[in-house]
Amino acid sequence: MKADNRVDVLDTPSDLKDKGIQKVAEAVNGLVADAFALYIKTKNFHWHMSGRHFRDYHLLLDEQADQIFATIDPLAERVRKLGENTIRSVAHIAQLQRVKDNDEDFVAPKDMLVDLMNENKKMAKAMRDAHKVADDAEDVATASLLEVYIDETERRVWFLFETTRELN
């Protein structure tokens, strides 16, 4: 093993500086953990949705969960392309995730949507922070990947916000 914890056989060559690579990998691994946690939270609320808008909310959360899940593999593979290790277990996710779990027996539909809106807002911020780390490391590929995901995350925030607004 190398001193920086990379296994030589997994050390994919890159022209980026090692220090920058490590910072990018750390930031992106946090996003991978958050995406797993947000996916589970979104599916939790999807499965436990109730009330008069059940169908609309159920479908919205299913669509959003699918979108979140679709980000996980490209983000984790980006870390591997940099020659770094990525998430290895549920325990590893739990160590890195910033998304708060919700294990309540019942959550009101509006509270679910507001919770997810706030978690997605935090996710967008974390992505922008990771984008800055990638920019500082001159890692255009990671920055460009994140730009699409930031836009998708902001769209989820927008839909959740509009869904929770009171009708006049």
Main features:
5 helices; single chain; DNA-binding; 168 residues; mainly alpha; Ferritin-like; ferric iron binding; Starvation-inducible DNA-binding protein; DNA binding
Outline the structure in words.
This protein is an all-alpha fold. It has helices at about 20-45, 55-80, 90-95, 110-135, 140-165. It has a single domain (about 20-165), classed as Up-down Bundle (Ferritin), CATH 1.20.1260.10. About 70% of the residues lie in helices and about 0% in strands. This is Starvation-inducible DNA-binding protein.
**CATH homologous superfamily descriptor:** Ferritin, core subunit, four-helix bundle
Instruction: Please count the beta strands (DSSP E, at least 2 residues each).
Output: 0
Structural class: mainly alpha
Percent of residues in helices comes to over 70%
C-alpha geometry: elongated
Q: How many helical elements?
A: 5
Main sheet properties: none
Share of β-strand residues:
under 5%
Protein name: Starvation-inducible DNA-binding protein
InterPro entries: DPS_DNA-bd, Ferritin-like, Ferritin-like_SF, Ferritin_DPS_dom
Keywords: DNA-binding
Family: Belongs to the Dps family.
Question: How do the helices and strands line up, and which of them pair or pack?
Answer:
Layout: H1 18-47, H2 54-81, H3 90-96, H4 109-136, H5 140-164
In brief:
With 168 residues, the protein is mostly helical.
